[in-house]
């Protein structure tokens, strides 16, 4: 228990010391503040967590986490601070706060729990990701929502929400830390549009999506951001072929923006109907079953993984994930059909 109080203490003090000068600058230096306090403190290893356990051996990181979750009364969540009020680092004008699917460009500084900085993007260029699509650790995917252009935010991410696969962009982020603290500087929030989604996947900017380009897109996502298919048996080439068949109404083996838009909008209409039906069913059941409906999967991804939602209800269920590698071996059940004048 001692440990957690100390950590919390540092964090709160750190907060007070930051931003006393240079309001509005990007040099958010939590590390200096926490290091100054950290000097008076024993290193983490020497804090007597042994006593809590009543045995001679020090606790493992997993045991410490389990203990912290117990004292928290459940899984730990992220903590975030926006500097409104005293420091007023949130921009006055916020035309668009970041939502799921928006493209966000940001800088970060990352700190270990003892306040030591382990990495920053300043000096090597900012990162651009699509929010809520698994391109970044879950804690940041969640913690950056609601941010505005130029906003500074601190996000403290517990171990549970900091998991990610090896990748180029995140390679400096330690994988076994109990808690990671980030200072995020949001440079730009781009509201999601179908055009932006298409451009994001059109790697060579030739206004078409091709099979080889989709394969390259999947590879780039994995290498750069550690984003993978949840079903490891999915073959990128088969998935790309299926994707082309799914969208390519004029059978020229490539997807134009017009084709992309028509098919996405067709699916979105089906998803809306499915959502309405779900609400109606929930309302009918309201007396007998007051439990919230269980979330049975992930929200549909507007990128390459759009094709995983076979029943068009907006959720990619575990079953859909599991059957995807098989389904991709054949053609899609619904082929794209347009009116002639739409093309
Ligand atoms: C890591 O990759 C595996 C497959 O290689 C995947 O099942 C898992 O979901 C990935 N984890 C994250 C956090 O992306
Ligand atoms: C495509 O355009 C984007 C900017 O919209 C640029 O960053 C990227 O380098 C371009 N790619 C190629 C291959 O020209
Ligand atoms: C439950 O259903 C009844 C009618 O069947 C309705 O009057 C009531 O508002 C509903 N409650 C909720 C919480 O939806
Ligand atoms: Ca292209
Ligand atoms: Ca086409």
From TrEMBL:
Q: Where is the PPIase FKBP-type domain?
A: 101-190
Q: Name one Pfam family in it.
A: EF-hand_7
Domain EF-hand, by residue range, is 235-270
- Which PROSITE patterns does this one have? EF_HAND_2, FKBP_PPIASE
Q: State the Gene Ontology terms under molecular function.
A: calcium ion binding; peptidyl-prolyl cis-trans isomerase activity
Against InterPro entries, the record matches this protein to: EF-hand-dom_pair, EF_hand_dom, PPIase_dom_sf, PPIase_FKBP, PPIase_FKBP_dom
The protein's enzyme class:
isomerase
Where does the secretion signal sit in this chain? 1-20
What is the protein's name according to its record? peptidylprolyl isomerase
**Which reaction(s) does the protein catalyse, per the Swiss-Prot or TrEMBL entry?**
[protein]-peptidylproline (omega=180) = [protein]-peptidylproline (omega=0)
What keywords appear on the UniProt entry?
A: Glycoprotein, Isomerase, Repeat, Rotamase, Signal
Q: Mind telling me which Gene3D superfamilies this protein's record contains?
A: 3.10.50.40, EF-hand (1.10.238.10)
- The protein's Enzyme Commission number: 5.2.1.8
Q: GO CC annotation: what is one? A: endoplasmic reticulum
């Amino acid at each position: 228990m001692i440990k957690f109080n100390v950590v919390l203490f540092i964090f709160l003090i750190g907060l007070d010391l930051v931003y006393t000068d240079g309001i509005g600058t990007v040099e958010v230096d939590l590390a200096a503040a926490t290091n100054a306090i950290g000097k008076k403190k024993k290193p983490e290893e020497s804090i007597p967590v042994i006593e809590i356990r009543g045995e001679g051996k020090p606790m493992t990181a997993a045991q410490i986490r389990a203990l912290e979750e117990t004292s928290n009364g459940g899984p730990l969540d992220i903590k975030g601070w926006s500097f409104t009020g005293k420091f007023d680092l949130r921009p006055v004008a916020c035309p668009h706060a970041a939502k799921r699917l928006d493209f966000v460009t940001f800088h970060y500084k990352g700190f270990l729990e003892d306040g030591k900085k382990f990495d920053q993007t300043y000096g090597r260029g900012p990162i651009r990701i699509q929010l809520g699509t698994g391109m970044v650790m879950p804690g940041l995917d969640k913690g950056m929502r609601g941010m505005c252009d130029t906003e500074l935010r601190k996000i403290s991410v517990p171990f549970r929400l900091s998991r990610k696969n090896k990748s180029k962009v995140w390679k400096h982020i330690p994988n076994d830390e109990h808690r990671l603290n980030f200072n995020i500087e949001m440079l730009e929030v781009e509201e999601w549009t179908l055009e932006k989604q298409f451009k994001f996947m059109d790697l060579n900017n030739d206004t078409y999506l091709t099979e080889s380009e989709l394969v390259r897109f999947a590879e780039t996502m994995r290498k750069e951001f550690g984003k993978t298919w949840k079903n490891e048996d999915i073959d990128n080439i088969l998935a790309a072929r299926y994707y082309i068949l799914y969208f390519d109404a004029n059978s020229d083996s490539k997807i134009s923006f017009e084709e992309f838009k028509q098919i996405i909008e067709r699916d979105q209409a089906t998803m809306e109907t499915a959502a309405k039906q779900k609400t109606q069913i929930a309302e009918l059941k309201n007396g007998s079953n007051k439990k919230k409906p269980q979330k049975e999967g992930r929200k549909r991804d507007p990128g390459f993984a759009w094709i995983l939602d076979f029943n068009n209800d907006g959720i990619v269920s575990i079953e859909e994930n599991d059957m995807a590698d098989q389904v991709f071996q054949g053609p899609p059940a619904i082929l794209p059909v347009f009116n002639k004048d739409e093309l």
